[in-house]
Amino acid sequence: MGTPKGLEIPDAREEKINMSNIKKLKCLICGAEYQPDEVRYTCPKCGDEGILEIIYDYSGIRKNFTKTTLKNNTEYSMWRYLPLLPVDDTEKIGPLKVGWTPLYEAKRIREDLGIPNLWIKDDGRNPTASLKDRPSAIAIVKARELGEKIITCASTGNAASSLSGASASVGLKSYIFVPQTAPVAKIAQLLVFGSTVFAVRGTYDEAFDLSIEATREFGWYNRNTAFNPYMVEGKKTVGLEIIEQMNFEVPDFVFVSVGDGCIISGVVKAYKEMLTLGFINHLPKVIAVQAEGCKPIVDAVNGGGTVKFVKPDTIADSISVGIPRNRLMAVRDVKELNGFGVAVSDEEIIKAIKYLGTIQGIFAEPAGSTAFAGMLKCLQEGTISKKDKIAVLVTGNGLKDVESAKKAGGKALIIDPNLEAVKENLK
Amino acid sequence: MGTPKGLEIPDAREEKINMSNIKKLKCLICGAEYQPDEVRYTCPKCGDEGILEIIYDYSGIRKNFTKTTLKNNTEYSMWRYLPLLPVDDTEKIGPLKVGWTPLYEAKRIREDLGIPNLWIKDDGRNPTASLKDRPSAIAIVKARELGEKIITCASTGNAASSLSGASASVGLKSYIFVPQTAPVAKIAQLLVFGSTVFAVRGTYDEAFDLSIEATREFGWYNRNTAFNPYMVEGKKTVGLEIIEQMNFEVPDFVFVSVGDGCIISGVVKAYKEMLTLGFINHLPKVIAVQAEGCKPIVDAVNGGGTVKFVKPDTIADSISVGIPRNRLMAVRDVKELNGFGVAVSDEEIIKAIKYLGTIQGIFAEPAGSTAFAGMLKCLQEGTISKKDKIAVLVTGNGLKDVESAKKAGGKALIIDPNLEAVKENLK
Q: DSSP characters for B19-84?
């Protein structure tokens, strides 16, 4: 208490909580259960497919984590949900302020589209300008708890730049694998943050496999999505915030763009945990949105549930993932909540960037506007109605990919510095 | 009350304050005084040089604006300082969440440089990624209070993109003048936000003059720095936040990068007003930092006080201002607080970008790292000591200018997707 807000030390850390409320880690495939100190990444029995889910002691948590404690909590960052996070040593939390991004009522879009119950979560307002700052903040806590000094990940770009920034802020060395085609802004971030950057001649999927190999070879700590079991926990905080910022009202539909499928599982986990804890009384439908040129999860949730790998072809680099690593969990989660999938064209993604910017002043990168484009499509097709309560997640800022923004934005008028030129162009 | 936090309606607006606490507007040159409804821009007697200062009814304000009311204020944005802002109709405040950006204790820099009392304010965390979102938020309030539908400004880039985003969020049309050389990311923002963009073949200084001409010709509402008297009030909120986030402790030195000189006057006004209101008991020294290739204000404050215009030549586009429009006020303010000026080379600016990123995970654009570079120089030269309490303002995010970031960051290692290539590059 007494710490001025906005400083790097959240109030939560002053209480010096010593151990997380984790009860066990459970394999998604075989159901084997582990204690946190028994396993670092995936299930030893099932290999890389055996993603572990984190299960907390919810009956213990609900004693000291209530609507009242939340209301009185002045820590306006992702760490306000500390009882539901895998943090054993709060001293290991980094200084960057992550989370508690704005949830906008988006009044002008509501009026323009005649949808009075729309909310837009702008998660591009995080430190490195994407939602991925949330899981990366968890990754550096876990690495430091283990005494690791070097951290690595493979990424389409945002997970990388977030991990790179978070690592820099606490002095961890980082080795990053990205596809060579990642947007220049994301690579520039990595380099400014001092990472060693391997720009791989290949896809994200190849970079992912290589980073796992390198992790095994060199013993680095690995933050990869759906390999490191704690990343869903970080992504979950965006869902927890939406729930609290909507005053515990549950939307009918939550739209989430999907690459590996880890963010959507985080959102679903947020709702399920808040239901378990009695903060809400039912679950929303959660909708997976992908680009038409890369929609393995959409096809799986709308079809028989099996994910078929694809060769990605989309402008939305952050979700250009042909082999979705969290596919099993993501498909299960969307189906369990009676959600569905929707695919949008690159053209619709670009149009959504322009629409969000022009009408509401929200600047999204392509994968950031994809969920909104999916919502628009569902409105047009009638799969959702104008009266529905709709939450849409924007996952990254448009400054991350200026080339795509330029496609959305049109052209400046280049003029000589005189009034005649202005008049001429106003005609 | 009861509004969930992070939604677009700050608590403050629920009180429906009807008129600001402005007492008068006073001309910087001739001292003439006006009521807000008597004048829109500069002093009618003195012309464009006659910038008006906003003076509030401080004795009235102090009755209801205290450390206690601030502590209990749950509006974590620039609007928490509403009693000190020129807002007559709180309904006209836009939805984007501006302000209450993080003030970092910057522990790793403190340790690395042996300066235990350093704070860094990261104002690149605003909606369009620069401090300029603060004055632009004020501009759209004033335009809407007047019933204006079209707004304009000239800008090196950040004032433009912030005004453009703010305008989009409330449905104002915007005409923007920028030098053709503005970074592509800033122009991309303008276009996505739907502005009509005049990219002027010339300098910022020429774009400025042209925008004033166009304002007079077409009757648009003008947001230009040091022309519109309310912009300093928006910029002031960054200073108010630093004061509150430092728990009303006054630093010995506050470092601010300077272009037109409007931000530094805002910071000084924040400290002076908080002194008047009894929140603090003395004033800091405020240091103006400019690039060596464009340092009219630095030369003036270190010399006789007269500003000589220059032809700008610096990588720091946001402060590439040869004719500083707020020169009289800025020079007066720095001198009054016993501050001084310091100039840094473009190389030092680029180095500071890399240092801030690598050691602390803060990504600054060139003008954003300039104040930090100036602080480093003062440490080296001994004009400040390692024991001093130092606050440094970072004014914009590095994603705004990726070309400069690339100069700071070095190169990625381009490799084939196999372990041998990784090993080879690790040697």
A: S--EEEEEETTT--EE-GGG-SSS-TTTGGG-PEEEEE-HHHHHHH--HHHHHH----SGGGGGGG
From the list A105, A167, A177, A90, the residue with the least C-alpha distance to A133 is A167
Tokens matching residue B366: 């060139």
CA distance B367 to chain A (A): 16
Of B320, B47, B206, which is closest to residue A422 (Cα–Cα)?
B206
DSSP string, B142-184: HHHHTT--EEEEE-SSHHHHHHHHHHHHHT-EEEEEEETTS-H
Note the pLDDT tens digit of each residue in A396-426.
999 999 999 999 988 999 999 999 999 999 9
Q: How far apart are CA B296 and CA B260, in angstroms?
A: 10
Query: What φ, ψ does residue B34 adopt, rounded to 5°?
Result: -135, 155
Contact A105 B8 (CB under 8 A): yes
Q: Where in chain B is the domain with CATH 3.40.50.1100?
A: 103-127+231-409, 133-222
B166 touches chain A (CB under 8 A): yes
Chain A residues close to B206, C-beta within 8 Å: 417
Strand, helix or coil at A146? coil
How many CA atoms are closer than 13 Å to the CA of B225, on its beta-carbon side?
A: 36
- Is A168 close to B399, i.e. CB distance below 8 A? no
Please tell me the CATH code under which domain A103-129+230-409 is placed.
3.40.50.1100
Task: Per residue of chain A (427 residues), give pLDDT as tens.
Answer: 333 333 344 444 444 446 999 999 999 999 999 999 999 999 999 999 999 999 999 999 999 999 999 999 999 999 999 999 999 999 999 999 999 999 999 999 999 999 999 999 999 999 999 999 999 999 999 999 999 999 999 998 999 999 999 999 999 999 999 999 999 999 999 999 999 999 999 999 999 999 999 999 999 999 999 999 999 999 999 999 999 999 999 999 999 999 999 999 999 999 999 999 999 999 999 999 999 999 999 999 999 999 999 999 999 999 999 999 999 999 999 999 999 999 999 999 999 999 999 999 999 999 999 999 999 999 999 999 999 999 999 999 999 999 999 999 889 999 999 999 999 999 8
B121 - beta bridge partners? B103, B393
From chain B residues 205-224, the ones with a CB under 8 A of any chain A CB are 206-207, 209-210, 213-214, 217-218
Q: What is the DSSP string of A104-133?
A: E--HHHHHHHT-TTEEEEEGGGSTTSBTTH
Contact between chains at B402 and A185 (C-beta distance less than 8 A): yes
Residue in chain B closest to A164 (alpha carbons) equals B361
Query: Which residue of chain B comes nearest to A215, CA vs CA?
Result: B419
C-beta of residue B356 within 8 angstroms of C-beta of residue B367: no
Q: Which fold has domain B103-127+231-409?
A: Rossmann fold (3.40.50)
Residues A419 and B69: their CA atoms lie apart, in Å, by 49
**Distance (Å) of CA A49 to CA A43, A327, A335, B338, B403:** 8, 10, 19, 65, 40
ipTM above 0.95, yes or no: no
Question: Is B420 touching A (CB cutoff 8 A)?
Answer: no
Contact check, Cβ <8 Å, B188/A94: no
Mean pLDDT, range B21-36, rounded to an integer: 97
Of A217, A247, A415, the CB nearest to B419: A217
Q: Cα(first)–Cα(last) distance of chain B, in Å?
A: 60
- A406 contacts B8? CB cut-off 8 A: no
| pLDDT beyond 80 at B286 | yes
Cβ contacts below 8 Å, chain A against chain B, sum to 294
Residues of chain A with CATH 3.40.50.1100: 103-129+230-409, 133-222
Kindly identify which residue of chain B lies nearest to residue A72, measuring between CA atoms: B74
Asked if residues A204 and A321 have their Cβ atoms less than 8 Å apart, the reply is yes
Integer Rg of chain A from CA: 21
Q: Which fold has domain A133-222?
A: Rossmann fold (3.40.50)
